[in-house]
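Customer escalation, tier 2.

The customer says the design service returned an amino acid string that "doesn't look like it belongs to this structure." They asked us to rerun it and document both sides in this ticket. The original structure tokens are below, unchanged.
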């Protein structure tokens, strides 16, 4: 997981470079939000939820991953839209809606410790959110290929 985390971080930082000439400040913001999200994901990995002393830290990092991802998606949506890649922008927008929905679910949904059904809902929505992020990185890579080609 650590290798994958580093690879995605490197890609997100390099992807921002594609836009840095035209949008230097926004590209820097994209890099910073990508680093924030990646450090948060590393925090999730290093603080298992099943260790009682680390549970609150794990939750903090887990929430930070998705909040950071939403910011990063928003920034990259703008950058790809500004370059005319509407299909990539649309994919990022859809993923943003999934992530925003998950963040809202975390705030107003049932607590995961209330029942096995609540825990299952949390785990399922989390996996859907993570898979949409993975798919989005793949779509973004195709978009940056188009911009560089």
């Amino acid at each position: 997981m650590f290798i994958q985390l580093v690879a995605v971080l490197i890609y997100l930082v390099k992807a921002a470079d594609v836009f840095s000439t035209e949008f230097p400040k926004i590209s820097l913001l994209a890099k910073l939000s990508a680093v924030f999200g990646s450090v948060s994901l590393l925090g999730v990995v290093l603080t298992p939820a099943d260790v009682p002393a680390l549970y609150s830290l794990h939750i903090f990092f887990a929430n930070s991953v998705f909040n950071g991802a939403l910011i990063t998606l928003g920034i990259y949506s703008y950058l790809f839209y500004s370059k005319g890649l509407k299909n990539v922008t649309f994919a990022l927008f859809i993923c943003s809606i999934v992530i925003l929905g998950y963040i809202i679910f975390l705030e107003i949904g049932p607590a995961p410790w209330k029942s096995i059904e609540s825990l299952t809902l949390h785990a399922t929505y989390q996996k859907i959110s993570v898979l949409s992020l993975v798919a989005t990185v793949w779509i973004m890579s195709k978009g940056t290929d188009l911009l560089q080609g």
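Tier 2 assessment: The sequence is consistent with the input. Residues 87 and 132 are 15 Å apart (CA to CA). The two ends are 30 Å apart (CA to CA). Sent an explanation to the customer and offered a walkthrough call.
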